[in-house]
Amino acid sequence: MKKLHLAMAAVAALSAGAAMAQSNATIYGRMNLSIERQKDGGVSNTVMQNNASRIGFKGTEDLGGGLKAGFVLEHGFNADTGAASGAMWGRQSELNLSGGFGMVRLGRYTSEAYFATADYVSMHNHDTGTSADALYAYIDRDSNKLAYRTPDLGGLTLEAAVSLRENVGNYAYDVAANYDMGALQLGAGYQKDGDANQFALRALYTMGDFTFGGYVQRDEDVYGPGSRTNLRLSGMYTMGASEFHLNVGRAGDYSDLDDSAATQYTLAYGYNLSKRTKAYAFYTKVSADSANPYVGDFSSFALGLRHNF
């Protein structure tokens, strides 16, 4: 009996070792804080600004035959106070299954249409904080999503998602495409939730130390009545550990709301202390017309530090 128990313990240990070899989990995150002199309308203030700090857990299990199960859990928090930023795991709570067929995703996760367009050209500060793109029309139906992503098709990947109608009454749709052509990278994104919808096209081109990008977006009934065109251009020049950034965005009037246009520009400098740590400075300004329904006049001068782990 003693020998049997020893044999069973050995089998259990070997099984645990095999399971450990076939699966993995990692912790990752970002701490991003800046000291800013902000002017919101006519009110000025000096603040410590949290810039989408987060902590996450992700992992995969090799199921054999090229099939893998994976998960992502991501929580946002205010690094300046330690308080939670929204719901626990509100940034992402995803379960997925991948293989040669592509990937199936379930749960809550950010729009791939956004990642393929606005986020892709936001080369400064990960499109976070007060210098984030204030004009992009984002349709927030990120929960209860089911998506399919294709494998790499010669540089082209596609993803289509549907958000189920539970507790809302209608389905929402999210479609994205990315095409990697080396120096030139193209993208497109489409979202629809009831009458609200948006479509955007993006391009990014790298030429030595220069990177140029931009997107054009057409949305309807997202932030205001009628339709609107939104254009953003961005550029980055790198010199050693230094980065120089310029971003300019212009959103026109909504067709059924006069004086609803807005402009935003950002000048920024970043210095990469390491592959994971960056010090930066920027000046950003948003100017909105009198009837703008989604953004107001705002400006900020900031000095910040970002660390990825």
UniProtKB/TrEMBL annotation:
Record keywords, A-Z: Cell outer membrane, Ion transport, Membrane, Porin, Signal, Transmembrane, Transmembrane beta strand, Transport
The protein's name: Porin
GO CC annotation: cell outer membrane; pore complex
Organism: Caldimonas caldifontis
Domain of life: Bacteria
Lineage: Bacteria, Pseudomonadati, Pseudomonadota, Betaproteobacteria, Burkholderiales
Compartments reported by the entry: Cell outer membrane
Signal peptide: 1-21
Membrane-protein topology: Multi-pass membrane protein
Gene Ontology terms, MF aspect: porin activity
Quaternary structure and interacting proteins, as annotated: Homotrimer.
Segments forming domain Porin: 9-289
Chief location of this protein within or outside the cell: membrane
Keyword Transmembrane: yes
GO biological process per UniProt: monoatomic ion transmembrane transport
Entry annotated with the keyword Ion transport: yes
